[in-house]
Amino acid sequence: MFFQINPSNGIPVYEQVSRQIMFAVASGSILPGEMIPSVRELARELAINPNTVARAFRDLQDQNILQTVRGTGVAVTHGARAKCISARTRVIRDRLRDVLAEARQSQLDEAELQAIIDAEFENSKKRKH
Amino acid sequence: MFFQINPSNGIPVYEQVSRQIMFAVASGSILPGEMIPSVRELARELAINPNTVARAFRDLQDQNILQTVRGTGVAVTHGARAKCISARTRVIRDRLRDVLAEARQSQLDEAELQAIIDAEFENSKKRKH
Amino acid sequence: MFFQINPSNGIPVYEQVSRQIMFAVASGSILPGEMIPSVRELARELAINPNTVARAFRDLQDQNILQTVRGTGVAVTHGARAKCISARTRVIRDRLRDVLAEARQSQLDEAELQAIIDAEFENSKKRKH
Amino acid sequence: MFFQINPSNGIPVYEQVSRQIMFAVASGSILPGEMIPSVRELARELAINPNTVARAFRDLQDQNILQTVRGTGVAVTHGARAKCISARTRVIRDRLRDVLAEARQSQLDEAELQAIIDAEFENSKKRKH
DNA sequence: GTGGTCTAGACCACC
DNA sequence: GTGGTCTAGACCACG
Fold it and tell me: Exposed/middle/buried for B62, CB within 10 Å: 0-12, 13-18, 19+?
């Protein structure tokens, strides 16, 4: 596991964890059928409380993305890949839609909005590498 | 006052109020120097708690967008217009930046991201009128 | 709230709480739109930890049976009634199906099984009042 | 040995093993005095942990259903048949009683409950052959 | 006052 | 070793 937690950016820690797992499955970094690190181990790595990790795992189990094997650990389900990919798209599209809805509602000039979008998109490309 | 409050959409109610006032000033729907409805009146209209309206007003006063006129009520300051315009841009740009940052971090394919952006932008145009 | 918790019967306490709320909604004891007792209050009444109650509430929110009103409390959603009724039927039917499947798999004589069912059904009727 | 283990259906694996042995004795598929496969062999067959099989055997030994024959292996005791038959009835009756108790507590309409029972009983008959 | 999050630490069943 | 449950207590945002 290779991701980062920011304890003070408004997004609940357990949600940062579950999202990053979801994204990792979507992108193929974690494969269906694979075991993922134990609650305690991941908690140690990320320097957070095990209960917080457990909550993230539980949320993903409720979505049938993870599955616990009794006394053994937690595995990625076989249907997880597709679910994660579409969930990822959905999350991003919905958030984008919210921003655009607010922009429209604020009566921001359309050309200006377009300019902001282009600029930020370029920005994000640069930060990509 | 003509805006709408959604008490269960994640955004704090007081923030929905202050933002919509801000946007109204930015777009010229409310003019500098104008009085705005009292805390009690606005609370009644929007069917929310007066404390919530008061908090929105306080936040806007802290930004020098509103000011109390002794014995009369609350008015939009003369410097408000410019402040609201730039605040509006900032709010929207920041939210957009967050979405794009998350999209990038999720390893979503760039072409797909671009497609989503275009589609949603078109969508929001349609909903505009 | 009028229900009972048995802390040592195998069923997790938070699940006993959420089920009993569900059943209460299904049977009409709690109506859609109504507020339910606060986490702290219910925890006090049932003599359990508030976090345990909170978890039950959270599970029901995930099923869109409860809905929190920010800073105010928790309410039963409007679609809850139908969901609870069908969930109740489903829970009971599934558990019954499991028992019967096990009975069949155990090669228990069918007449004997029928006898057990009849006897227990009569029993449960008696206990009803 | 011809039975199946489901590692992720809530019932502990060791209990699935011991129950299925018990049921096999009750139905006469395994006869008193017969040897049963060794822990290691059964574990291999069922693709589960030997400790799990050992625990199932231990439970059955505690109930005097299995006994170890020094230097030879594990055998079904002579009193086992009767014990298994009554244990089987007890297990099923208890589970049935639990379901009906919950149904009653949920205030499910009695006629509806009766209908569910009948339907599922017919269902289970069909699946039997 | 309300719910939500997080931590800490305990105990349990399971493998 | 594993995950699951529960308790206790703290802090925060919201109305």
Answer: exposed
* First-to-last C-alpha distance (Å) of chain B: 21
Domains and their CATH numbers in chain B: 1-129 (1.10.10.10)
Surface of D (30-49) touching C: CB under 8 A:
none
Q: What is the pLDDT of residues D47-77, one digit of tens each?
A: 999 999 999 999 999 999 999 998 889 999 9
Token couple for D119: 């339907």
Element (H, E) at D26: helix D13-27
Q: Tokens 């409380």 — which residue?
A: A49
When pLDDT is averaged across residues B94-105 and rounded to a whole number, the result is 92
CA–CA dist C40, C54 (Å, integer): 9
User: So what's the pLDDT on residue D128?
Assistant: 65
Q: Are B57 and B39 in contact (CB under 8 A)?
A: yes
Weakly modelled stretches of chain D, pLDDT under 70: 1, 128-129
Helix (H) / strand (E) containing A35:
strand A35-36
State the pLDDT at residue B1.
61
pTM of the model: 0.92
User: What is the percentage of chain A residues whose pLDDT exceeds 70?
Assistant: 98
C-beta separation of B42 from B79 below 8 A? no
Q: Detail the protein residues whose CB sits closer than 7 A to any atom belonging to strand E.
A: A 7, 12-15, 48-49, 51-52, 55, 70-72; C 38-41, 51, 54, 57-58, 61, 68, 71-74; D 7, 12-15, 48-49, 51-52, 55
